[in-house]
Amino acid sequence: MRIVCIGGGPAGLFFSIVMKAARPDARITVLERNRAGDTFGWGVVFSDQTLGNIAAADPATYERIVESFVHWDDIDVHYRGRVIRAGGQGFAGIARKRLLAILQARASALGVELRFEVEANEADFSDADVIVVADGASSGTRRAHADAFGTTLETRRNRYIWLGTHQRFDAFTFAFEETPHGWFQVHAYQFDADTGTVIVECREETWRAAGLDTATAEASVAFCERLFARYLGGQALMSNAKHLANPWISFVQVNNARWFDGNRVLIGDAAHTAHFSIGSGTKLALEDGIALAAALQRRPERTRAFEEYEAERRIEVLRLQNAARNSTEWFENVARYASLEPEQFAYSLLTRSQRLGHDNLRLRDGEYIANIEAWLSQRAGTSGPVPPMFAPLRLRELELRNRVVVSPMAMYSCVDGMPNDFYLVHLGARAQGGAGLVFTEMTCVAPDARISPGCAGMYRGEHVGGWARIVDFVHRYTHAKIALQLGHAGPKGSTQRGWEEPDEPLDTGNWSLLAPSPVSYGERNQTPRAMTREDMDRVKQQFVHATEMGLRCGFDLLELHCAHGYLLSSFITPLTNRRTDEYGGSLENRLRYPLEVFAAMRAAWPGYKPMSVRISATDWVEGGVTPNDAVEIARAFDAAGADLIDVSAGQTSRQAQPVYGRMFQTPFSDKIRNELRIATMAVGNITDADQVNSIIAAGRADLVALARPHLADPYFTLHAAAQLGYDELQWPEQYLPGREQYLRNLRRAAQIAADAASEVTR
User: Fold this and answer.
1) Domain spans of the chain?
2) 99 in helix, strand or coil?
3) Phi, psi angles (nearest 5°) of residue 118
4) How far apart are CA 760 and CA 431, in angstroms?
5) Which of 51, 118, 436, 690 could form a disulfide with 357 if both were Cys (CB 3.0 to 4.6 A apart)?
6) pLDDT tens figures, 164-222
7) CB of 676 within 8 A of CB of 635?
8) If DSSP codes are grouped into helix, strand and coil, which group holds residue 644?
9) Backbone angles phi, psi at 240, to 5 degrees
């Protein structure tokens, strides 16, 4: 087999090593445009997991790498004169030059041909069975075949400069300095006995305002030395990019729709990039090399091998790119978190990627988490440290005993809007389960406001008695509070129940629909009628009437549904609002009617009771609502008297292309909460207590709503309290024997796990 590898970085070299070790008969040539010792950057960071993968793939390389490591266990966050330290991180650093030297020596020893200072020309190796494209993010080979690979490049908004220093760092160090131009931050770590990496980063506009866009390399280094002198111990900063006209770089995220074309296959940064702030670039490169070599050994047919390699690696790459996107956005928006106190600022930084959670931090450094919980509890006014999810919250005169919310979930089980015994048991059980707040499903303000014939309503006099029975049960038998969510389906109405064909029209008995403009939700959905002023007044009065009925029922909190493409949401998004009057056009105009409805409801709802608004923070469609729009939407409702913004996303268009993942909507809540300094509720694929604790502790939301976990376990919150050893959350007296059994089971499971671990170590 003839293999040519274009690019002599970690990806290309380690692929060649693993492949040559497995197939000594393979003829492998590595072509590198630079000299053997040249490299950009200073140090490389490895986690224990990455080291394990290297050891399994090539023990000889692993042994040489670990001989050169500098290890550290702590992360220090320097912010506003404070240093917050978190331990147990378990990272190691190595000089990038040293890593490349090790890989080059190992490849040569195995018989790989290394050729330096060579510009790759595909015509020179037309005999190659496989061309491995490993020449980095700016790959010339990939660029020449960009259409075949489906390449997309996204330039991020920060600038950074990669420097070195002889200052010794005994922890991975983050430092933040505010200037008249904006925030600058440092990522610094040791990578050999006397040298460390210092990456200085800032926003593009900050970089320009400071005059660094026109500064020489020497002037840029001097600027950074002055700004971060207190962390350098008198040591100078060094640049190995002085040959560049300006050494400040913009990070480019690389994505490719396809990773192979003919006999060419992409690996490492040529295939994908992940921002340096999560330290996974070299990890991905090495693991790509391992996976490609394994696939080529398993599959003699080249295309099949490439397919298996790409299928295997895409999932891991997507996972890390999602984490990197969250991390990147955090560092791009340091000013957003400037109002946080150092304790919460540091916690937010540590958990920025959403990969590292509260439990993991506790395992790494229990004392650090104990201090965070004590600080959060003191702020919440509790008598002693409690897990973040169990800190109380006050909204106007409503006191919630914890931060867990049972999210609004459509059950499609009413007849003409009437809540029946199913709703009593469904909502009652979840209120008994320990959550601080339980929401009704979207409760519709008129028969033609329903999503489906089975949707709940608040428009008939009989509905008051049906809902009051449920509210009374919650208040009498549980410690939970209960919220009423009111909405109007608008263009998404007259559809089938959720377990049938959701969002599709009824087979028979459809009713006419209203919307801001005659835009249907889908090809099969009916075209709604554009609302007249008379329609708008009538629907607003329906919301007010439902509000008054909800007050008579005794609900504790009222929420207006302005999300997911329903009527008020369809006014807000330009995708469905095509009006040319004062209710269409600009965002201010599109918000006009939803704000009129909210104001009328607020006037009918007592001043001592809180109100919330659910919004879609993005449409995930080009030309639709953006996260920046969402900040303005939240600002408008806050000014109108909303006490909480329930931050959801999407479901406004069938053309949406959401970016899924765990807690995938939480960044929108984070953005709104910390840019506007208002209370928010996070929703969206939040699945466990650890995630709830992390979101609350980091200040990404004030409440956390969970839907599917509460369908699977009505007693989610009680179980979480038991698992965390939190004894203050009261179980229903009738269920106390069950609590004792549950605790015994937990202790038994812990003992079995401990015994198994002990057996492994013996």
Assistant:
1) 2-332, 357-729
2) helix
3) -125, 125
4) 42
5) 690
6) 999 999 999 999 999 999 999 999 999 988 999 999 999 999 999 999 999 999 999 99
7) yes
8) strand
9) -110, 20
The two structure tokens encoding residue 100: 């490349």
Q: What gap in Å lies between CA 294 and CA 121, rounded to an integer?
A: 27
Indicate whether 462 pLDDT > 80: yes
Give Cα 537 to chain centroid, integer Å: 40
Do 481 and 467 form a contact (C-beta atoms < 8 A)? no
Q: Shortest CA distance to 541 belongs to which of 449, 618, 478, 627? A: 449
Phi, psi of 392, deg, nearest 5: -70, 165
- Of 160, 566, 583, 593, the catalytic one is 566
- Token readout for 408 is 């609004």
Q: What is the CATH number of domain 2-332?
A: 3.50.50.60
Strands (DSSP E) contained in 454-545 are 481-487, 514-515, 529-530
| CA count, 13 A, side-chain hemisphere, 598 | 28
Long-range pairs for 312-317: beta carbons < 8 A, 24 or more residues apart: 313/259, 313/287, 313/288, 314/259, 316/284, 316/287, 317/271, 317/272, 317/274, 317/284
Radius of gyration of the chain (CA): 29
Token pair for 617? 């923070």
Q: Is 347 a catalytic residue?
A: no
pLDDT band at 761 (very low <50, low <70, confident <90, very high): low
> Residue 112 and residue 98: Cα distance in Å, rounded?
19
Q: Assign 3-class secondary structure to 294-334.
A: HHHHHCCCHHHHHHHHHHHHHHHHHHHHHHHHHHHHHHHCH
Contact 572, 579 (CB under 8 A): no
Distance, in Å, from the CA atom of 66 to the CA atom of 77, rounded to the nearest integer, reads 27
Contact (CB, 8 A) for 271 and 12: no
Place of tokens 């309290």: 721
Cβ atoms within 10 Å of 293's Cβ, excluding its own? 28
Question: pLDDT value at position 660?
Answer: 86
Q: For residues 679 and 75, what is the distance between their CA atoms, to the nearest angstrom?
A: 30
pLDDT one-digit tens code per residue, 491-517: 999 999 999 999 999 999 999 999 999
Tell me how far the alpha carbon of residue 288 is from its chain's centroid: 24
The matching CATH number, chosen from 3.40.50.150, 3.20.20.70, 3.40.1160.10, 3.40.1010.10, for 357-729 is 3.20.20.70
Provide the b/e sequence for 542-562 (b: ≥16 CB within 10 Å).
bbbebbebbbebbbbbbbbbb
Report pLDDT digits (tens) over 246-266: 899 999 999 999 999 999 999
Between β-strands 82-86 and 75-79, what pairing exists: parallel, antiparallel or unpaired? antiparallel
Which stretch of DSSP H or E encloses residue 345? helix 342-350
What are the tokens at 146?
């960009």
Coil, strand or helix at 271? coil
The pTM of the full predicted model, rounded to 2 decimals, is: 0.93
Continuous segment of H or E residues that includes residue 251: strand 249-256
Dist CA 707 CA 704 (whole Å): 10
Pairing of the two strands 514-515 and 529-530? parallel
Residue with tokens 């005659």: 518
User: For 483, left (φ over 0), alpha (ψ -120 to 50), or beta?
Assistant: beta
Contact of 44 with 282, CB cutoff 8 Å: yes
Is the pLDDT at 81 greater than 80? The verdict is yes
Beta strands 404-406 and 703-706, pairing class? parallel
Q: What is the number of alpha carbons within 13 Å of residue 358 lying toward its C-beta?
A: 22
CA 493 and chain centroid, separation: 31
Candidates 534, 560, 543, 540; CA nearest to 633 is 560
The answer to whether the beta carbons of residues 298 and 253 sit under 8 Å apart is no
Sign of CA dihedral 235, 241, 243, 244: negative
Q: For residue 35, what are the CA distances in angstroms to 9, 31, 44, 281, 431?
A: 12, 11, 19, 22, 67
651: phi > 0 → left, psi -120 to 50 → alpha, else beta; which?
Answer: left
CB contact at 8 A, 680 and 673:
yes
Task: Say if residues 703 and 437 touch (Cβ distance below 8 Å).
Answer: yes
